[in-house]
Amino acid sequence: GEPTYILGIETSCDETSAAVVQDGRVVLSNVIASQADIHKRFGGVVPEVASRRHVENITLTIEEALTRAGRTLDDIHAIAVTYGPGLVGALLVGVAAAKAISFARGIPLIGVHHIAGHIYANRLVEEMRFPLVALVVSGGHTELVLMKAHGEYEILGETRDDAAGEAYDKVARALKLPYPGGPHIDRLAREGEPRVPLPRAWLEPDSYDFSFSGLKSAVLNTLHNASQRGETIDPADLAASFQDSVTEVLVEKTIRAAREYGARQVLLAGGVAANRGLRERLQQRCEAEGVALVIPPLSLCTDNAAMIAAAGYIHYQKGQFAGLDLNGVPGLPL
Ligand code: KG4
Ligand code: ZN
What we know:
- This is tRNA N6-adenosine threonylcarbamoyltransferase.
- The chain is an alpha/beta fold.
- It has two domains: 5-120 and 301-318, ATPase, nucleotide binding domain (Nucleotidyltransferase, domain 5), CATH 3.30.420.40; 129-295, 2-Layer Sandwich (Nucleotidyltransferase, domain 5).
- It is built from eleven helices and ten strands.
- The two termini are 31 Å apart.
- The chain binds 5'-O-[(R)-(carboxyoxy)(hydroxy)phosphoryl]adenosine and zinc ion.
């Protein structure tokens, strides 16, 4: 039949993004205005600065997405916007823009959960096969999700304290590496050996939850104790040991879930999917287990609007539309 074009909008954190996606699978454009350079100066995302930047960028970003896709608003069947979870002031900018266009042009509105978006980034690469297990790891989230059908999410486990990316960023700060620290730790880890003993938070034997704050404390203590004794610890070895602990727990819990639920696919998503240690380990374990692994390209792993449009397409097919009372919900459950 006729192709369906969804305009996606994402402003939940520090990227202003708009995209046009055809039939939930084909990216026609995916424009991302990153604020990373501004927040770098503060060592983290400053919510007020993020909101203001979104306001400045949103209109041009949407226009650019339409232009690059070679479409106009007349071609758009629905507008899919992230309405949570995220920073409330940031979410509101995207939601307000989506509602304004929806109202002015009579285009149906769809509210999308940010994590559903991260998972659906995978569908821009490969068709989903159910049941599947998705590991979503970013600066704000660590979730292990079971899907038995499109648009149906069952959270198997999530972090009880820090998100995986947050743990990377905090350990990087302790090692005096720039923000965001994840990529720096990843690089440093390649130069070291995991010979520093660090804990693994397996939690209860049947739990799929995660916990990274104990590991982070163990790293800080190791550094502190060494300096007290006048010893030095090779930062590369410490980075390698930290990475080993994080990736072992993430990968083993994912594989256990894949086995328990007979998953046909394992999906990886979120900014930490960039981590080479994690990708390699997950690749090896999925191969050994005989389960297909999908990892989107980096540009689709970090926050972007194409993934929001892809997730929104499922709502479109199910006729799940939002009213003009749609609001940003910072703690929105999946
Ligand atoms: O998904 P994302 O771009 O933003 C959200 O948090 O939603 O993820 C950013 C996070 C940061 O914590 C960053 O340090 C981490 O992903 N990250 C990495 C790597 N690249 C980015 N963590 C570990 N290894 C990497 N190579
Ligand atoms: Zn995200």
